[in-house]
Specification:
This protein has 10 helices and 11 strands. It is α+β, with helices and mostly antiparallel strands. Helix 1 packs parallel to helix 2 and helix 2 crosses helix 3. The two termini are about 15 Å apart. It binds 4-diphosphocytidyl-2-C-methyl-D-erythritol 2-phosphate (SUD) and adenosine-5'-diphosphate. 4-diphosphocytidyl-2-C-methyl-D-erythritol 2-phosphate binds next to strand 1, strand 2 and helix 5.
Length: about 290
């Protein structure tokens, strides 16, 4: 049996961390969306062995139990009470450790695919419960559609589709450690973006209200160590984006444009300044299978 599925990157349009729980885990309030930029994952069952084997075309990825796709498959088999041999091949198009949730999306795509392949009938909520054991973005990625995410990442409330818009992404050539950034949340006073206003903008399909209310609590922390992020954000605006901000814990920043022609202009300009740039639209298909 063989399936090829698409695992889209995510963007955090709004990211608030209202408080840190006593156990150190973070309470999130995030508005997330998925975009066209995607990894492709082939999952093939094998009768010759009972291991989960990971292959990828990226030298940046672990191909053992540290791979989030491996962890998702193992947890899936624990949940359903059987196990078969699998070969999971990842074509990596989403930059790694970029704030774009590539690993979480690969894990979620594996959960969705295995549920379909073995007709195990788990709901998205059940897949999200498995996913949160991998990391806090996997529940969102199970849905991979515009949603409000809260709790420790396990509460996903799907929202109306975004109105028509385009994203231009630019990844500065710096490495960011997510655990280091998240640890600082407990001791740093950060701003809290207006998530409710952002939700109202989406509900009313009001492009200007959405753009005016994006925001990311982690941006101040990450930017303090990597000023290039601020420079890229300003350039996106200078080149014509209506709004810009960092995604997740960074370092990727994105600009928002209303039209494709404007987005192409911003993309062409930023490409001369940053060699990892992408142009993408919000993902419309909630759980894409190729
Ligand atoms: C910040 C976000 C927003 O979408 O995006 P990314 O930057 O990952 O894309 C994610 O929620 C992020 O999710 P994820 O990377 O899954 O984070 P988690 O699993 O919660 O934690 C990542 C790592 O940080 C560590 N961690 C977490 C919280 C904390 N107070 N101190 C920590 O050291 C965890 O132990 C884990 O090793
Ligand atoms: N399938 C995978 N794709 C990407 N990263 C993975 C994967 N499996 C494990 N990882 C590890 O997870 C970490 C986070 O990667 P990623 O999900 O791309 O970034 P982010 O959390 O910034 O959105 C990296 O250190 C990477 O080595």
């Amino acid at each position: 049996m063989k399936r090829i599925v698409r695992a889209p990157a995510k963007l955090n349009l709004g990211l608030d961390a209202p408080f840190v729980h006593p156990d150190g885990s973070i309470e999130w309030r995030m508005v997330m969306t998925s975009i066209g930029l995607s990894d492709h994952i082939q999952i093939e069952t094998k009768s010759s062995h009972s291991a989960i084997r990971i292959f990828s075309d990226s030298s940046f990825l672990p191909n053992d139990r540290r791979n989030l796709a491996y962890q998702a498959a193992r947890l899936f088999f624990d949940k359903v009470g059987f196990k078969v041999g699998l070969e999971i091949s990842i074509e990596k198009n989403i930059p790694v450790a970029a704030g774009l949730g590539g690993g979480s999306s690969d894990a979620a795509a594996v959960l969705r695919a295995l549920n379909e392949m073995f007709e195990t009938g788990l709901s998205f909520e059940e897949l999200a419960q498995i996913g949160v054991q991998v990391d806090s973005d996997v529940p969102y990625c199970v849905y991979s559609r515009t949603a409000l995410v809260s709790g420790r990442g396990e509460i996903v409330t799907p929202l109306t589709k975004l109105p028509k818009m385009w994203f231009v992404l630019a990844k500065p050539h710096v490495s960011v450690s997510t655990p280091k950034i998240l640890k600082q949340l407990a001791t740093t006073s950060v701003s809290h973006p207006p998530i409710d206003e952002l939700l109202a903008g989406i509900e009313n399909q009001d492009y200007d209200r959405i753009v005016a209310n994006i925001g990311n609590s982690l941006e101040e922390i990450t930017t303090a160590g990597h000023p290039q992020i601020k420079t890229l954000k300003s350039r996106l605006i200078e080149y014509g984006a209506d709004g810009s901000q960092m995604s997740g814990s960074g370092p990727t920043v994105f600009g928002i444009c209303r039209t494709e022609s404007r987005a192409r202009r911003v993309y062409n300009s930023i490409s001369g300044f940053c060699n990892e740039a992408y142009i993408s639209q919000p993902e419309c298909d909630s759980h894409p299978v190729i």
